Amino acid sequence: MFNWLKNRRRKQITAQPFPDEWHKTIMERMPYVAALPDSLQNELFDFIQIFLAEKNVEGCTGFAITDEIRVIIACQACILLLNRPTSMYRKLRTVLVYESLYFAEQETYNEGGLVSLSHQTRAGESWDLGVVILVWEEVLRGYRHQHDGYNVVIHEFAHQLDQENKAADGLPFLDNPDMYARWQEVFSEHYARLLRDVKRGRKTVLDDYGATNPAEFFAVASESFFEESIKLKKRHPDLYAVLQEYYQQDPAQYWDDARM
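Below the sequence we write its predicted structure tokens.
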């Protein structure tokens, strides 16, 4: 009954015309959307309407949230959901947005098990309790530089996908059960490769932060998949292929088609 009511409500939401101002904002500021096939663009617009109807986007420390901010965040978050079954980030309730970098407490443990607290600046966080935190200045940086491999929205919402599978371990729920063995093989290999490259000071397509742990590796790989797709496909074809199967998109091909 609940799913029937939810689907009915979502059909009512998407039956409404997509606002012209939203469309203008997206097409002017999101070149990746313009490169998408028409069918995926239409699906994206539906998802944006549902996302903004179901999730709260709130400003922190007095930061005023505009429709432009809401649409840009929702657009990038929903790109990760296209062309495959989705629960529309079922755990997520609220997106909190700071204007600039904020401080968060970080617990660390020494060898004796004692806990110490430190304060670290953050550009974003993804919590398992229904919250994503973003910094607007970093969101702007992400969409203004489409091919630098850095996108805080993609990064944190990749974590949300990972967290839907209970543990945040770099292994999200996979629609095809046959894919798990291949995922483990490819991700383990490329994570180990990144660890070696970082240790030796080698520059790679993947950001060094991906060497932190498998969960961060998945989030960083997702950023590269959408932002540096052509480079990633050339230098890490196996990793690109696994992400392509998971996300059911081919960004490298979309960019090639858009240039023709």
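The first helix runs from residue 2 to 14.
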